[in-house]
Structures are given as C-alpha cells and as structure tokens.
Amino acid sequence: MYGAVPLAQIKGKLLQLKEAGQLDKVKMLLLTNCTFDGLVYNVERIMEEILAIKPDMIFLWDEAWFAFAGFNYTYKQRTGMYVANKLHEKYKSKSYREAYEHHIEKMENGQIPTMPDPDLVRIRVYATQSTHKTLSSFRQGSMIHIWDEDFQRKTENTFLEAYMTHTSTSPNYQMLASLDVGRRQVQFEGFELVERSIEIAMILRARINDTPQLSKYFDVLTVHDFIPDQFRQTGLKEYYDKKSGWNRMEEAWEKDEFVLDPTKLTLHIGRTGLDGDTFKNKYLMDKFHIQINKTSRNSVLFLTNIGTTNGSVTYLTNALLKIADELDAKVDALDQREKTIHRNRINSLTVNVPPLPDFSYFHPSFKVIPGVPGGNLRAAFFLAYDENNYEYIPLVECLPEMKKGKVLVASSFVIPYPPGFPVLVPGQVVSEEIIEFLLALDVSEIHGYRADLGLRVFKDSVLNRQKTKTSIGAMTNIKKTKSIINV
Ligand SMILES: Cc1ncc(COP(=O)(O)O)c(C=O)c1O
Predict the structure, then answer these.
(1) Taking CB atoms and a 6 Å cutoff, what residues make up the pocket around ligand 1?
(2) Which domain holds residue 50?
(3) 199 and 341 assigned to the same domain
(4) How many CA atoms lie within 13 A of 223 on its CB side?
C-alpha cells in the first residue's frame, strides 16, 4: 500500500479482532520499514504496544530499503534486529517488571495496557533486507535476519522447508560470495560510508533548494510534506532550510511516530508541466543516461547510498540545470493558446491532483465475520479463475451503474503504475472515489485493467451464491468462538 500505517489504526483493528475472539488468528504483522520513498516507523513503540495486546505476535519487517540502517546509530534504533535485542534485555530486567506492575496498578477501568506482560511476552522478529539495494552485493543478493526466541521450537523446520522449496539445489556461489564481501565492507567501514551517503543527500537537498534556477521548477519534498503534524511529536518539519541549514534529526528519530529517511529524495516536478514517466524516460534517461526506478504523476525519486560520490551529485544537479534551461526556452516559444494549455497542465500536476482513494471494504460475500476487519481475499481471487464468474463494465459506465444501485465488486487486483499500489483487491467493493481516481489518472499502465474491456467485476449471481456460503461459515465460526469463551 502507499504510505505507512499509523499505530492507532493497527491497534484498533487488533482490538476489534480481540473483541470478536479472533485475535489468535493473527499470527504476524508485516510492515515495510522503510518504504521506498523513505517513511520510517517507530519500531520500538510499535512492537511494545502491539506486544501489550498480543504478547506472542511475530513481526516481519520488510527492510528491503534499509540494510544500511544498522551502520548508523540514529538509523539503527529503528531497525527490527536492534529493537528485538533491546526489548529482549528490557523485558528480562527487574526494573521492567516493577514498571509493568506499576503500570497495571495505575490503569483505569477499560484502559488498554501499553506495556507487555513480562511473563507472557515472546520476542519473535524477522527482517528481510535487499543487501543489493543499499549495500554491496550482486543483484538479488539479500538476507533474512532472525531474532526469534521460539525459532528452534516453533519455526525452524517449516522455515527451512519453505526456504528449500523456493531455492535451487545449486546455490549461486557468486552471489553468496558477493554478500560476504558486502558484509565485510560494512563491518570495517560501514559507519563512515553510511555517514557520507547521508551527507551527500543533504548536500543534494541544499543545492536544489538554494539554486534559484532549480527551485523554480523543482522541490525536494520535506518531512512536513510527507508526514502529517500529529505523527511528528517533536514538530521537526524539515532537515534542511536556508536559514538554519541542516536541522539535527536525532531527536525526531528518537521520538516521532514517523520520520523520513533523508537518503530518499522525492523531487516534486509538477511545475515543469511534465509527468514523472516523461521526465524519467525522455529527459533523465534519453538525454543524460540517468536511470531511476520510482516515479509518480508529479514526482521522481532519487536515492543516495554508500556508492554515491560527490561527482554523481554534481552530474545530477548539472543535468537538472540543463533541463531547467531547456524548459525556460520551451515556455518562451509558446504562443498564447499553448501557454494556457501549459498552465492547465501544471495545474493538473500541482493543484488538481486526484486524491489517492482509501481502501473501501470487502463485500459481505468475502467477509468472514460481519463487523470484524479482514476479508477472504484468497476466495475472491480463486473465484475469478472461472471466467463465467465475472463480467466487464467500461469505466465510464461504472458510476451510472452504481447510481442505479448496482454494487460492483472487484475480481482482480487493479494497480496503476506508477506508483504501483493496488487501488482495488479481489473481493473489494468499488467506491465512487476509486472510479473517480481511475478516470482522472493519465498513466499508461494499470495492471489488472484493460481499457478496451473495462473493469472486471464479479457477476451478481456469483456474489449471492458466495454470500449464502460464507454466512453459514461465519455463523459456525461465531458459535465456535462463543463455546471457547464459555469453556
Ligand atoms: C518494499 C520492498 N520489499 C521487497 C522488495 C523486493 O526486494 P528484492 O528485489 O531484493 O527481492 C522490494 C523491491 O523493490 C521492495 O520495494
């Protein structure tokens, strides 16, 4: 999904599940930390407060973009492995037990504990890191880090079996050797290399902000642009500004619910009048051989890492300057009518941006228990294996059909690219907001949607059949739950 998930939302869902007697079904929480564009969770707070609700929760941190974080103290505090170790030590201590007892004593009726019970808590943490993305190794070289108190007892056999199932019997020694070299490199000089990549990111931010010809067309988005105020308890708005230079980030990284990794630079390009894909292909790639991976309608993402040099930053800023000069010349040559078109285009990229739609809800046919979060996405996905179960509705006809009372339920994932996050998943009810977003989108690729056929939705007859089946299933489930509670 796009963005990151606030702790209150995760806890809210878990408490709803607890209320319905379904909490035991939740085995693992998977979060991406940090996200591609640099949103970083407060790992310690999340693990503590979730373990207070479910003391044996397994955490899987997708640290694909965060392997370097272990080699800088500020970053390290927000990694799965560091926090697992810290919490393990903490919960064993006498002082924690006393603090916990005090916390429980002080709790008012109906209040939910925010500290885990030291007698029940288990530290079970996994982190997957794409070493090749932010450290050194051949492409595909990645690692799974494990800090699981119950690994041998509960996981080892199935874990190894799954691993063997997905790997080859002929290991790629080149890749393994490259991982070993990458590990050795950061063991010896990781601190310095990571420090330098952060410094280079700060320099790049400063250059773009402080060069009028660049800031005319480009903005590097700041912490404040990405993270709403209520999730920045320290109030830090940006790492760099003209007056105070580089703000210190340590305090924010210690306290805020979300922070932004400064090595991920999102460049807002709306004022160029170009969309992200055109900017990436026709300008950065064709003219300057600069390859980037992530774009949105109005932004492109640059990353600095331990391989970034001062020379590469200079090359990039020079390229941006040349693009800015070229845009100046192009705009100068436009006649009055073309200027209006250009201004409208800029407006559509800066002001009239279609808001990203939120997840709506699962259709009752795919809900396990009414009123309880979660849906049977798997059932919906496989139901669509049979082509008789779905039909296509042209996108422009969706809203009129919905106004007439028809409920549209997606039978596939629908993923506009960029940015590559699903706006619909199988079994999800299509909302007006989602259709409006899809109609307003001008990206050329929408995975799971073919403009010539229309939106693929389940036929009504299938939905009704499903509903009868699942509600019986749901009733049995409720009965089971109740009897367990009675016992
Ligand atoms: C958040 C996230 N997780 C996992 C992956 C997959 O990583 P890998 O390509 O190393 O398998 C990616 C790839 O881009 C990613 O962005």
Answers:
(1) 32, 36, 62, 64, 130, 142
(2) 7-167
(3) yes
(4) 28
